[in-house]
Hints:
- Chain B: This is ABC transporter permease.
- Chain B: It holds the Pfam family BPD_transp_1.
- Chain B: Residues 110-319 form the ABC transmembrane type-1 domain.
- Chain B: The chain crosses the membrane at residues 9-30, 114-137, 149-170, 190-210, 254-276, 296-322.
- The complex is a heterotrimer.
- By secondary structure, chain A is an alpha/beta fold.
- Chain A has 2 domains: 3-221, P-loop containing nucleotide triphosphate hydrolases (Rossmann fold, 3-Layer(aba) Sandwich); 224-250 and 307-369, no CATH class.
- Helix content of chain A is 32%, strand content 20%.
- In chain A, the strands form 2 sheets. Chain A has a 9-stranded mixed beta sheet, with helices on both faces. Chain A has a 4-stranded antiparallel beta sheet with strand order 2-1-4-5, covered by helices on one side.
- In chain A, a hairpin with a 2-residue loop joins strand 9 and strand 10 (224-230).
- Chain B is globular.
- By secondary structure, chain B is mostly helical.
- In chain B, the strands form 2 sheets. A two-stranded antiparallel sheet of chain B has the order 1-2.
- By secondary structure, chain C is an alpha/beta fold.
- Chain C has one domain (28-120, 184-329): P-loop containing nucleotide triphosphate hydrolases (Rossmann fold, 3-Layer(aba) Sandwich).
- Chain C is built from 11 helices and 12 strands.
- Chain C has an 8-stranded mixed beta sheet, sandwiched between helices. Chain C has a 4-stranded antiparallel beta sheet with strand order 2-1-4-5, with helices on one face.
- Classes of the chains: A alpha/beta, B mainly alpha, C alpha/beta.
- Chains in contact: A-B, A-C.
- Chain A binds chain B through residues 49, 51, 77-82, 85-86, 88, 90, 93-98, 100, 107-108, 111-112, 143, 145-146, 156, 159, and chain B through 225-227, 229-238, 245, 248-249, 322-325, 328.
Amino acid sequence: MILRVRDLRVAFPAGTAVDGIGFDLDRGRTLGVVGESGSGKSVSSLAIMGLHREAAVSGSIVFDGEELVGAPASRLRELRGRRIAMIFQDPLSSLHPFYTVGEQIAEAYRLHLRVSRRVARERAVEMLAEVGIPEPRRRAGEHPHRFSGGMRQRVMIAMALSCEPDLLIADEPTTALDVTVQAQILELIRRIQRDRGIAVMMITHDLGVVARVADEVLVMYGGRTVEHAPVREIFRAPRHPYTQGLLASAPRLPAGGAGDSPDPAAGSVAAGGSPDPVAGGVAGPVVKGRLRAIPGSPPSLLAPPPGCRFHPRCARYAAAPDDACVTEAPELRELRELCVLGEVGEVHAGRALRLVGAEGPPAGPVHRTACHLAETRGGSR
Amino acid sequence: MTRYLLRRLAAVAGVLLVICAVTFAVFYVLPSDPAAHACGKTCTPEQVTLVRAQMGLDRPVYEQFGGYVTGIFTGRVLGDGPTALECSVPCFGYSYQNALPVWDLLTDRLPVSVSLALGAAALWLAGGLAVGLVAALRRGTALDRSLMAATLASASAPVYFTAMMLLLILVQRLEWLPYPDYRPISEGPAAWAGNLLLPWMTLASLYAAMYARLTRASMIETMAEPYIRTARAKGLYERTVVTKHGLRSALTPIVTIFGMDLGGLLAGAVITEHVFGLPGVGQLTYDAIFKADQPVVLGVTLLAAFFITLANLGVDLVYAVIDPRVRYA
Amino acid sequence: MTGASPARPAGEPGTAPDAAPDAGPRPAPLLSVRDLRMTFGKRNGVRAVDGVTFDVWPGETLGLVGESGCGKSTTGRMIVRLMEPTGGTVVFAGRDITRLGPRDMRPFRRDIQMIFQDPFASLNPRQTVERIVSGPTRLLDRRGVIELLETVGLGAEHADRYPHEFSGGQAQRIGIARALASRPRLIVCDEPVSALDVSIQAQIVNLLADLQRELDLAYLFIAHDLSVVRHVCDRVAVMYLGRVVEIGSRDAVYNAPAHPYTRALLSAVPVPDPEVELVRERIVLPGDPPSPAAPPPGCSFNPRCAMARDVCRTEAPPLMAHGPGERKVACHFAG
């Protein structure tokens, strides 16, 4: 267990941004943290980095057996960049415009490993080569504005990994990139994780990215965890109405169909103009224009709704209002199937579920959700 | 970089030539009788006739301008015969009221103004940056608020008021400093600096206040940049984050303003020099305007233009060193 | 539709009811773009848009997709005349509007409106919603504004507020209301949902679809998000480095992409389904999109293309009909 977070809270003078989240993360695994703006996903990651300066952080963050909440600032600084590294959304503004990329990579390596300038410089070149930058020696001497968006994100990754960290926090690392470049960067992060066995916390709003890289998913809403489950379960059998809504509202491409075969026969079939349902059952036939939207807007940090923060937008609450949704914050509870969990896809089709109360830390990846109404219906979407 | 430098130097030369033409037009072409203006209020008609000949006003305008410009580089003889005036390189005209070439007057006074400007600049840069930096890092605290209130007061006090207060307190009451009486640096740096300290403080208090506010704003903006977050995420010491990553970026807008301010001051701080009776270019300008000594006013104008364009060039070069993006542009 | 006059009958959004894009023989296109070009800079100019041709029929949505720097936004801006094209023509409702002066352009400015990516940047922060929606020429009275606000899912109570009081999704609704005020026939939507949260994105997509049905609008939908485009468009044009490389019906392009770039683009989009992601074959393109300042010779996609042969490095492929239907592809080896 490299990271163990319990009841993490981050309170700003204006309001509470993160209100009690918890998860475990092992080496070699990827946790996807999904949420919309204001869900508290980035704030949580900055709390783990110890980068909040004007916020009160409480709860527990145990990194490799060491409690970070309340640890002295000097200790957090030692860990940052050395054992916990982070990459950000916009690689251009996240790199200093005045220093060469080689200098910027070497800087942290020199500081943390106390090596000479020459050794650090060599390390920078080596890292640039590892993240796939051609002519690394020459390019190490160039400034960030000479690089393209994808290359800049590679530089950020090289910088983050130079000190061989145990945990990499990636905050929307591909959001600012073009889709073909995004694919390259996700591939790179996955390769590096496989090679080095590091733990990755991938923060994103893009469910597709999560599906591609994550082992486990934490869905956040209004500063709280609404659902936490292995990645296949989140997508196959989402329990929380917000997760269900999010999945239903995301437009998607035909599953598996697109671009996998340059088959001329396929071309002629489709060009015939028939509105054929797309291949693969996940997306279903496309009705032009309509998506299943979640009504309303994400809650404000300043005045979050009482009780369950999602209830003003919740279809399940609208259908069968329950006072508990308005008065009580739902606890994150484990959903454990009575029968042996066979084919995951069948579960939501109506298997009986037993609710188990919160009983300490979960032993393995289990499916937990925070909804008063979770027991009334399965997770069909 | 060399090409960039050459391009910039050519631009500076062009700007100076244009300024030269404009000032020449103002003083030689526009007045109905430039000679009378040049000679001054107390001239007799005979003297004016003589000046007219020496200025070459009977010749075509382009020839006059040509003579003026080439005079700067080669020197010239004004008029001919026994009344001819020798005006050696660089010839910026002749002050009939002082009976000296303008350049001699300027070079006489320049060391005073340069001493004043450089000393004050060092003071205000140090003070302004320090105050601005502290205020930015302690943003929102009582310290920040009181520092900003102090800079506001300091910036709004007129130079003569500040000068009087400093004289009253430091010279008359406490007797810590002598009454300023300019001593060239050749007489010893201690005497030089001791006598200039009061004018330096006066001038610096005005500029330091502005620089403090500017530094604070720029620093606050820079420290909110994502690359500062990256620097912290790398685990750098906060000291390194602030100085190496923050301050260097925050200083770029200040470099621009500093170049302009220093360039302007090198050609004389009129009020400060006047208040303390320092014999600098500012004082010379003040007297020249008072006595309508046009050749001197013309010379000072060109000198100021020269310093400001030169300072601008300096700023651009420093910029190119600081910010690599400029170099490739 | 047939006449050159931009006037329309009695304020009704005017297209014939049989104008559905796939219903039999088509009427004249509402918008015809022919060989549109935009070159920045005089010598060795950057060809941001390099000969783009397409049509938009009344009541349909044409998606214009591509990565940053492919010229899709510039194309949109030239159509609404926020930028002056350096070549080619824009024909709207049968009339060439490419070189019209400001006075002659005025009626067309009402017909062609635009919605922008950043809803806040495109709304004047000092104006109330009522003023923003009614526009500088006071197209609508208060009742008209309120009616329009209700059409886009806002209410009368929002009319006197200022943009900063709204969330991103609401601000985009205001932007849409403003665009609708002049009763346009074509709206150029430049990345209208890419700055919004996923759940809000769906609301705006649905709103645009409802409005299209009710008001018989045509959209030119510019976006980089291929999944969104698939949901809103009838036809899709894929741009790469200032050119259209593939254009056709949505199903044709998405189900059987013919250009290698389209194929790579589609395969790069992550699908929100881990099991699909596990087995899906991905084409990860090497390198970055090249700069329009120095386009590669021949087919501009050739340095990143796995299928590239010698001819691709010397000859730029023209946009040619591919298979039955209306699909066109610019590739020497279109599959």
